[in-house]
Design the sequence.
């Protein structure tokens, strides 16, 4: 018996998660996964219910679960509350408290959606990059972080720390992923400026000794942002720190033109993980039933693959998604000439039918 | 009499600067600019000559000059020397010592080169963004910055500080630029995570009160990296911190597909400035006479415009560059079918002739 905690979150979160849960429940029956679901809140919805974006009891439930499926958090409704209680703080806290340091963000171009990209087809066709982002360290959580008055003026600062063990464990994830892909790993840093990046590069080089089959390269973050525009297909796996990973993974996902299709995983040392779509909570279209549920459905596939090692079920879900795309079904965000525009629920039902 | 210090730098620096100097000398005669040139070294070339990437006497000369024209610094030759003496340190030091906090990096798509972009023509045609990057503060120069051993393992950290006055002066540059352009300013930060970004946003809002005609927006850096791919023409002026500006300006410049065309300016509080191409020292093609000198020639135009207020001469140089493009002359980096491939010197001579 495995436990999955469902956190629908805010905005379009509940709508898209509802479809993903249907797919998960069918997969549970079909592949005898022996999975049991429980539900709770995170982000703005948690603030509304508990007064905090991540309640202690939710955190306990998350710790007890074998995996977590998350929709998305945030929205203008909570823009004016105490910054320490905003929806994002709940997301950052659950990542940190559960030690979900390994964030996998694939940027994959579906051949059926090649036209959606703003890049020329020859530049992005067949694009398949995996960004491995360090998720529980660096400037996101570094102490001290302070706001003060100095020499009569306001100032504020953040700290960007990395330790050898933090770099080593995320580097290993990068190399392990490269081993099951095309054996090319690009480590991105700013070692010509940052002390933390110099350590990063040094430790990545050390870990590389255990992976002689992987071709390792290093790239400065500014150059990586350029190369992702110039020739994104040169990359297989990219490993980088929390802040650079935040920026580059969003840039990379947008290269596909269909961010509504991209799932993500955040893993701890034992492959327990939280799974969520790459896109946000899209408050502007929430409640209209038009959001694309496929990234969340594909997050279920990642969950089964990475946390439960249920390869067959994971593959079947991916195939079902590919099939509905082949059928020409499209939500508004990926709509194209000659296709049929469907709602969130119709898309979910189509995947269930294909599965 | 105005003094310009010429720092050719490393790699292709000397070749491209030589052509830019020819253009500058002709403009000097033609527009009676009363300019006098002196020469020195920066980066690897300075290390070779003086043993340091920026010698004290060079810094004195730079302080005394009214403007500086720089080629580019760095190369594999200096990869193995003491990190504190690498070419980049000279660049960072001259920026900091001269207080060149205002870095202007235009990303402009030349209609003649529209095909060079990896983005679809409709997404980038007419692209004209100005990135205003804070250049002397933030994590590039923040103290403390340390490498140590803690709990038996190596660790390292950097500090990202910003003060009210640092943010205010760069925000003003952003608003001033927006005023002479399309009056839209987007301030990019990561205020949902960083304390320094919260101060940044607050101070930018305060400065905005003095610019009621400018439409101000705020965007998180990860979203900005996405939007630059999705719909870059939504931007007019972007103002952001040192690190985010490093990444986003490189990304934006690559959207044009012709980074060999893009100049940049780094200004102090009195519009004294250092001017250099956006591209690097390209050691792989150095000495072959094939590099594109146009970004450096356009840096001369920026120099005359921003530091000397010589608008006519600056415009004339830009027009001359546009004319050689119209003539179909192209260096290898921007070569296209139906055009004539020329060398660095031929391109320089063509601009001189057009001028
Ligand atoms: C919401 C925000 C704090 C978060 C981050 O910066 O990590 C988001 O952008 C992401 O990438 O998951
Ligand atoms: C060479 C390097 C230190 C420099 C920077 O990061 O500022 C460069 O990338 C730039 O953008 O001018």
Sequence:
């Amino acid at each position: 018996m495995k436990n999955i905690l469902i956190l629908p979150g805010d905005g379009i979160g509940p709508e898209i998660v509802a479809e993903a849960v249907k797919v998960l429940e069918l997969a549970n029956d079909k592949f005898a996964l022996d999975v049991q679901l429980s539900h709770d809140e995170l982000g703005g919805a948690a603030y509304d219910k508990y007064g905090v974006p991540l309640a202690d009891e939710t955190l306990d439930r998350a710790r007890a679960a074998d995996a977590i499926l998350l929709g998305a958090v945030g929205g203008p409704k909570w823009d004016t509350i105490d910054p320490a209680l905003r929806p994002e703080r709940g997301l950052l806290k659950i990542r940190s408290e559960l030690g979900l340091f390994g964030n996998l963000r694939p940027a994959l171009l579906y051949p059926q959606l090649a036209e959606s990209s703003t890049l020329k087809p020859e530049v992005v066709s067949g694009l398949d990059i995996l960004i491995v982002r360090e998720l529980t360290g660096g400037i996101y959580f570094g102490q001290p972080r302070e706001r003060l008055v100095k020499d009569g003026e306001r100032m504020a600062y953040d700290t960007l720390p990395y330790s050898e063990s933090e770099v080593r464990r995320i580097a290993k994830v990068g190399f392990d992923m490269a081993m099951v892909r095309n054996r090319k790993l690009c480590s991105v840093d700013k070692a010509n400026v940052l002390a933390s990046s110099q350590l990063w590069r040094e430790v990545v080089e050390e870990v590389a000794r255990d992976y002689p089959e992987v071709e390792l390269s290093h790239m400065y973050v500014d150059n990586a942002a350029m190369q992702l525009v110039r020739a994104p297909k040169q990359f297989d796996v990219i490993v980088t720190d929390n802040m650079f990973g935040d920026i580059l993974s969003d840039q990379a996902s947008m290269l596909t033109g269909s961010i509504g299709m991209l799932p993500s995983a955040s893993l701890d040392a034992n492959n327990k993980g939280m799974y969520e779509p790459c896109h946000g909570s899209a408050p502007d279209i929430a409640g209209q039933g038009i959001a694309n549920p496929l990234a969340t459905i594909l997050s279920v596939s990642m969950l089964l693959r990475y946390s439960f090692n249920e390869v067959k079920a994971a593959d079947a879900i991916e195939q079902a998604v590919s099939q509905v795309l082949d059928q020409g079904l499209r939500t508004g965000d990926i709509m194209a000439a000659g296709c049929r525009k469907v709602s969130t629920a119709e898309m979910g039902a189509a995947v269930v039918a294909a599965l």
